[in-house]
Amino acid sequence: MIEAISREKLFALVWERPATEVARELGISDVALGKLCRRQQIPKPPRGYWARVASGKTPRRPPLPAYRAEIEECLRRKVRSTCQIRLSKIQLEFLKFALEELETTGVDTKGCNLAYDGIRSISPELAARILIILQRRYEKWLDDRMTALSINGALSSLSNLVDKLQPQAREQLLVFHRKSDNGYSRSNSPAISIRATHDFLGRVAQLSRLARSNGLPYLAADISTLDHAWSVKQIFSPRAYTSAKTELCVSTYEIWIRGDVQDSWSRDRFETIRMPLRDICPIDLMPPNEHRLPRRILRSGIKPYAERLQGKRSTNPI
């Protein structure tokens, strides 16, 4: 009977009749009734309450206060509603690992304001540092914390964590200087600066995966003028070059630039120094880019343009 009685009904009983009568009706002792009320956080009438009732007075009955569990759940819901980045339990665990690791190296982690189920706010500089430390340390954390059966799920959660943190991270400026050739390096050769945007890093991750999965030493891709800028010294300027071609080279673990610069008098082919990918972004944890293929083009769709596609001159006068 005690298990079936609700908290609200028990509150009503202890304020309608003395505790001895309520305990007798429930089949328990006065002490057990007192413990049950304390456990369910039900206030009991104070001493002298029933004497005042017997004398014809009507003492004020307090309302039933909210249960602590209900208060905590209400607070949790309130915290969840203020989260900027919603994280799972395991993602929060790995995030705390990263923050602890950064603290040991003297990095101030106060820029990350954690909530019960995610991140309320995070500074762009700290988000960038967390992404790098995730790449360097995630394998050890997985070995220490995970079983073989759960490692795939943990990797998926880490990948989602990286995807959520990247838009919050400060963009890096990657500066590639010319590699020294046999102890000699031209001081007047340009340095290539690349703004490491979220899209750019996604392309780098894709190239790295392709090189790894196909057993290739590296992959090279042309860099458009929107992806890089020339930074030159002294009297040199972009106008001094008749042509300048750059290629982004990505291997499984490194990234560098290959350049081919021509001016009126000479041609210079060079490579820049190589940067480890793990110092730039969490390359192993970045989610793959999924590009949707265009829908099939039907014959009826290209019929109006058939002559143009075949290279024929239109018979209509211009």
Overall description:
- There is one protein chain.
- This protein has helices spanning 7-16, 19-26, 30-39, 49-54, 68-81, 89-104, 124-145, 151-165, 198-213, 299-302, 306-309; strands at residues 85-86, 112-115, 118-122, 172-176, 191-196, 219-222, 228-231, 243-250, 254-262, 267-271, 275-276.
- By secondary structure, the chain is of the alpha+beta class.
- The protein folds into three domains: 7-65, no CATH class; 83-168, no CATH class; 172-279, no CATH class.
- Strands 6, 8, 9, 10 and 11 form a five-stranded antiparallel β-sheet that branches.
- Helix 6 packs across helix 8 (151-165).
- The longest helix has 22 residues, at 124-145.
- The model is unreliable at 232-236 (pLDDT under 50).
Give the rounded overall mean pLDDT. Answer: 79
Principal-axes geometry comes out as elongated
What is the terminal-to-terminal distance?
96 Å
Number of domain units: 3
Q: Strand share of the residues?
A: 15-25%
Please provide the ordered H/E string of secondary-structure elements: HHHHHEHEEHHEEHEEEEEEHH
Please tell me how large the radius of gyration is. Answer: 35 Å
Number of strands: 11
The helix-and-strand class reads: alpha+beta
The number of helical runs is 11
Q: Helicity, in percent?
A: 25-40%
Largest sheet: 5 strands, antiparallel
Provide the low-confidence segments as ranges.
Answer: 232-236
